[in-house]
């Protein structure tokens, strides 16, 4: 064969081979297409609600779960991504939230107290306005003005409140009170003053040495400051209280009358610690563990907020037998309100709006508050309370003088309240070791004066007057 013929033959073979390959490929393609499973289509991501709160103790947990149920019923397609951060009063969660906001990774919504605590996030520019939710639900018609003002800054609403808690309540064990004839001897706790409270505690210690007169839990420090805030209202009245926590007084002058009341309260706390009027293990306990001492008959009294009622219900403690409650003092109502918000750049804004609607709804508020120990933020919702404590406090909310709580984010600045936790805790710790009380009180007073300055407390509420904080009745 000539070279030319051979070349023609080779190229013919190559062409035939190529044609065969192409035919095979096409056939393979169609054959494959016939049997291959359809390419998986990725389902759209399930909408979520990323939420932070600190309700992990008895009563609190069940209460938030009840609102989740209301939300799920209305929004079955939205997955709740819950981030509960243990530590009552947000002792741990608040730092977590500030971290998330500062790093530009906000959740969809988080628990926040109405008032000063909310204002700090607003001032930092982290929150979106939620006026449209207020409007849609007609909340201005059903939420009292005092509470509206605590959710509104620079003319806009930044949160939807779910409840009203009272911080000033005396929880007591009725059996111990009856056995010792406390009410016959000292009168109704609703009218006691600071001296009577100490007298009662001493009387209990003398007559029932196995029982702690006053339950305390200082593991997270704030229950001590909580006692301080209640005793300050008891001693100084609402105006002194409001001036102190806002720094709106002549705080550099030790002769200012606010200091006299503050010193009396510091002294009272030091006496309680030094005379063993608290349960000795208070540095190890959380707020609910201290509440347990009361219904178990290991402590006689506990000055704490009404989430304690929620806790007692959750453990099945019986009202009138294992616990009783008295507004302390009745004439003043130290209020606080848990609310939810919408951070700027929240990943799922539609889910947040749906959540805020559940929070502000009659059904959400009724179910939550029945369990939580608080009363609804909405005055048109009246749950069937299982004990006489809440009807009384709901009535007081309309009739007593109102001031916001400092320890629970209403009236003060977080940095200052944190300093107060440390000052009061070290006062109590030193007093328990037998240090001289007057010296301790003077040292604490100086530390508080410095803390007011250092934390810039008086500037925090610039433009506000003391009347903003007090609803006088
Ligand atoms: C408060 C909060 C209450 C209750 C309490 C103890 O700050 O407002 O709802 O949970 O802490 O955790």
Give the topology, please.
Elements: H1 3-35, E1 48-53, H2 60-74, E2 79-84, H3 93-102, E3 109-113, H4 116-123, H5 131-137, H6 145-151, E4 152-153, E5 156-157, E6 160-161, E7 163-166, E8 169-172, H7 174-180, H8 182-186, H9 194-207, E9 212-214, H10 222-246, H11 257-274, H12 287-295, E10 299-304, H13 307-314, E11 324-327, E12 332-336, E13 338-340, H14 349-360, H15 362-372, E14 375-376, H16 389-399, E15 401-404, H17 414-432, H18 437-454, H19 457-460
Parallel strand pairs: 1-2, 1-3, 9-10, 12-15
Antiparallel strand pairs: 3-13, 4-5, 6-13, 7-12, 7-14, 8-10, 8-11
Helix pairs in contact: 2-14, 2-15, 10-11, 10-17, 11-17, 11-18, 17-18
Residues 54-55, 60, 88-90, 113, 165, 287, 307, 336, 338, 408 line the site of beta-D-galactopyranose.
Describe the structure.
It is a single chain. This protein has 473 residues and is α/β, with parallel strands linked by helices. It is 51% helix and 12% strand. The chain is built from 19 helices and 15 strands. The chain has helices at residues 3-35, 60-74, 93-102, 116-123, 131-137, 145-151, 174-180, 182-186, 194-207, 222-246, 257-274, 287-295, 307-314, 349-360, 362-372, 389-399, 414-432, 437-454, 457-460, and strands at residues 48-53, 79-84, 109-113, 152-153, 156-157, 160-161, 163-166, 169-172, 212-214, 299-304, 324-327, 332-336, 338-340, 375-376, 401-404. The strands form 4 sheets. The chain has a 5-stranded mixed beta sheet. A 4-stranded mixed beta sheet has the order 14-7-12-15, sandwiched between helices. A 4-stranded mixed beta sheet has the order 9-10-8-11. Strand 1, helix 2 and strand 2 form a beta-alpha-beta unit. Helix 2 crosses helix 14, helix 10 (222-246) packs across helix 17 (414-432) and helix 11 packs across helix 17 (414-432). The chain starts with a helix and ends in a 13-residue tail after the last helix. 48% of the residues are buried. Mean pLDDT is 93; it is low at 1-8 and 13-36. Bound molecules: beta-D-galactopyranose. Beta-D-galactopyranose is lined by residues 54-55, 60, 88-90, 113, 165, 287, 307, 336, 338, 408. Residues 54-55, 60, 88-90, 113, 165, 287, 307, 336, 338, 408 line the site of beta-D-galactopyranose.
């Amino acid at each position: 064969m000539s070279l030319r013929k051979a070349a023609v033959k080779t190229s013919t073979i190559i062409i035939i081979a190529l044609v065969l390959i192409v035919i095979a490929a096409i056939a393979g393609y169609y054959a494959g297409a016939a049997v291959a499973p359809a390419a998986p289509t990725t389902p759209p991501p399930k909408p979520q609600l990323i939420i932070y709160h600190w309700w992990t103790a008895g009563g609190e947990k069940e209460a938030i779960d009840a609102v989740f149920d209301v939300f799920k019923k209305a929004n079955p397609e939205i997955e709740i991504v819950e981030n509960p951060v243990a530590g009552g009063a947000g002792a741990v969660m608040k730092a977590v939230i500030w971290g998330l906001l500062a790093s530009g990774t906000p959740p969809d919504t988080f628990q926040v107290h109405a008032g000063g605590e909310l204002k700090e996030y607003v001032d930092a520019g982290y929150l979106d306005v939620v006026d449209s939710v207020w409007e849609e639900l007609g909340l201005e018609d059903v939420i009292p003005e005092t509470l509206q003002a605590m959710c509104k800054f620079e003319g806009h609403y930044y949160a939807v409140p779910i409840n009203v808690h009272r911080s000033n309540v005396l929880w007591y064990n009725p059996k111990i009170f009856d056995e010792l004839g406390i009410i016959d001897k000292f009168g109704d706790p609703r009218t006691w003053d600071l001296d009577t409270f100490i007298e009662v505690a001493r009387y209990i210690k003398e007559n029932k040495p196995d029982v702690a007169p006053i339950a305390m839990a200082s593991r997270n420090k704030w229950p001590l400051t909580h006692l301080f805030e209640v005793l300050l209202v008891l001693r100084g009245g609402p105006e002194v209280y409001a001036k102190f926590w806002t720094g709106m007084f002549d705080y550099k002058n030790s002769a200012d009358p606010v200091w006299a009341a503050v010193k009396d309260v510091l002294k009272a706390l030091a006496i309680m610690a030094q005379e063993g009027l608290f349960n000795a293990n208070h540095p190890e306990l959380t707020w609910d563990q201290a509440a347990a001492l009361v219904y178990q008959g290991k402590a006689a009294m506990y000055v704490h907020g009404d989430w304690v009622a929620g806790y007692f219900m959750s453990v099945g403690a019986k009202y009138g037998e294992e616990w009783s409650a008295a507004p302390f003092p009745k004439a003043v109502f130290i209020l606080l309100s848990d609310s939810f918000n919408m951070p700027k750049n929240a990943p799922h804004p539609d889910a947040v709006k749906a959540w805020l609607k559940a929070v502000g709804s009659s059904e959400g508020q009724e179910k939550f508050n029945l369990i939580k120990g608080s009363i609804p933020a909405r005055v048109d919702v009246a749950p069937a309370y299982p004990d006489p404590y809440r009807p009384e406090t709901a009535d007081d909310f309309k009739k007593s003088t109102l001031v916001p709580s400092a320890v629970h984010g209403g009236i003060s600045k977080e940095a200052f309240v944190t300093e107060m936790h440390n000052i009061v805790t070290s006062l109590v710790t030193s007093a328990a070791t037998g240090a001289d009380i007057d010296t301790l009180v003077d040292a604490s007073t100086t530390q508080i004066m410095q803390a007011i300055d250092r934390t810039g407390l008086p500037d925090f509420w610039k433009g506000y007057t003391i009347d903003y904080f007090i609803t006088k009745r």
